[in-house]
Amino acid sequence: MSCYQWKTLAPQIKFLLKPNRYYSNIEWIVSFSHAYSSKSGKKGKIAPLQERKMVDSSRVWAKGGDGGNGCWSVHRSRTDWRGKPDGGNGGKGGNVILECSSAVWDFSNLQHHLNAKRGGQGMSKKMAGSCGSDQVVQVPVGTVIHLVSGEIPSLIMNASKTDLQPWELPDDVGEVEKSKCDKPLIEIVDWEEKLDAGQKLHAEDSNKHQASKSTNIYENEAITDLEEGTCHSSESDGENTSLEDANDGESLSETELEEETVQYSVGELTEPGQRMLIASGGEGGLGNAYFGKSLKHKKFKYREKKPSVENMDDGIETSLSVGTLGSETILILELKSIADVGLVGMPNAGKSTLLGSISRAKPQVGHYAFTTLRPNIGKLNYNDFFSVTVADIPGIIKGAHENRGLGHAFLRHIERTKVLAYVVDLAAALDGRNGVPPWQQLRDLVMELEYYQEGLSERPSLVVANKIDENGAEVVYQELKKRVIGVPIFPICAILEEGIPELKAGIRTLLIDNGEKHHTLKLDNIITVN
Ligand SMILES: Nc1nc2c(ncn2[C@@H]2O[C@H](COP(=O)(O)OP(=O)(O)OP(=O)(O)O)[C@@H](O)[C@H]2O)c(=O)[nH]1
């Protein structure tokens, strides 16, 4: 490419280089430039980018959208000078939802702050506010959720449903169908009587961090607790001292504070399409049209004054007109790949080459250690349409539990595999190479697995003795058979695809047996001393 051509391309490249989300485009440009230069016989000037590091855990703060406020409006006409209340309800806030997708590999594109949209405000002419849109975030298959604070996430089948749509304006409070809402709706109270008796009502203090709890303003308990004391708003924390009746709420928030520790594995997403609600939106406030027919007392009839945070001593209907807050959650997401077979081995043992030869996966292969920086998953298909997923994880070395090499955090990806395939390099210690013999490799691997999680190695296993094509490898293989007992050993040459059919049959047998024959690799069954 001539200098002039590069110059004309420069603005586009500059634009693509700007934000992180165009990273894939950069890779594309680099590969294009390499392809171009190799085609034209010139040496590429741009160095290839290193493979992106897999992000397999992420901390996320999620906040559901707040509910919109109900509208306080009076419609007057020439014939009706007193007017009628016609304020619509506020809309429900949006939810934050995690969606399991096979199109996503890791959490590299996941934002740390997830906010759903708030509900729209109600308007005059009985117009309901719009519902806030949900924030749906895609996460990879095998995502495990740990809860730091907030509500425990719940699995949902479809997109979020609003229990009571804001446009479903009931003619009378008492006529609201309970079937439309799981929660018991507002209790049918004779408000007129209460107001006449001169009782002031106060709303229960809504918990800012627990919108679902604050939505309990619809519950009977909340209403019956509101008989005495001064009125206060949902945002007037600390001002109200007569909350003995509402001690339940206080004790709840205290226990929540105590529970600031992480609750592990509160949920997991294992199938594409699964959805998990992690932060729910607040309920919309009620417009004065909602109270129009139930509140007939003069003092409160057709209230014109719009409720405000400063002036909230106006009764239960005022506090109900303010939309509740969306819930807040802090989560730690962790990825645990789901595969039937996990390939475990030292760096350079040939795991990626093996995965490439048994499946259609194309993992990166290199003659240097730690070529694989992220797990690769491939599908192993049989002639009768039986298929098995195989995970190739980065190489594990002795001392990985002390953070040597890439550490041993990647072992979480084999936690859920049914079968372990230990891949050893038969030629690692041949011809003066400074590797370790295969039986020692096996011992180190089993120990690292146990260091990571006790009992992780106790599952059906087989040994893949790779690089049988190398000089002297056959002798080492014979020695390996003598030193390692209790598990089947398959000699293969991954590059030339020799021994692959036998290995595939062995994997299938082990999966179907599901460990009934107890082919488990134990430290006692590996002889390392000469
Ligand atoms: N001679 C021979 N070499 C092989 C065979 N299989 C793999 N290799 C070579 O071994 C080297 C390492 O192969 P990889 O597949 O990258 O090994 P890996 O276990 O994935 O290595 P890491 O990514 O570091 O964990 C490459 O140079 C391969 O060409 C084999 O059957 N015979």
Care to describe what's here?
This protein is 22% helix and 17% strand. With 530 residues, the protein is α/β, with parallel strands linked by helices. The chain has a six-stranded mixed β-sheet with strand order 13-14-12-15-16-17, with helices on both faces. Strands 5-1-11-7-9 form a five-stranded mixed β-sheet, with no helix packed on it. Strands 6-4-10-8 form a four-stranded mixed β-sheet, with no helix packed on it. Strand 13 and strand 14 (387-392) form a beta hairpin. It is elongated. Residues 19-51, 170-259, 296-305 and 309-313 have low confidence and may be disordered. The site of guanosine-5'-triphosphate has 24 residues, from helix 9. This is GTPase obg. Residues 245-261 have a biased composition (Acidic residues).
CATH architecture verdict of the largest domain: Distorted Sandwich
Query: What is the residue-mean pLDDT, rounded to a whole number?
Result: 73
Name the bound molecules.
Answer: guanosine-5'-triphosphate
CATH fold node name of the largest domain: Spo0b-associated Gtp-binding Protein, Chain: A
Helical run tally: 12
Fraction of residues in H or I helices: 10-25%
Structural class estimated from helices and strands: alpha/beta
CATH class of the largest domain: Mainly Beta
**Uncertain stretches of 5 or more adjacent residues:** 19-51, 170-259, 296-305, 309-313
| Order of secondary-structure elements | HHEEEEEEEEHHHHEEHHEEHEEEHEHEH
Biased composition (Acidic residues): 245-261
Domain OBG-type G: 339-512
Keywords: GTP-binding, Nucleotide-binding
GO molecular function: GTP binding; GTPase activity; magnesium ion binding
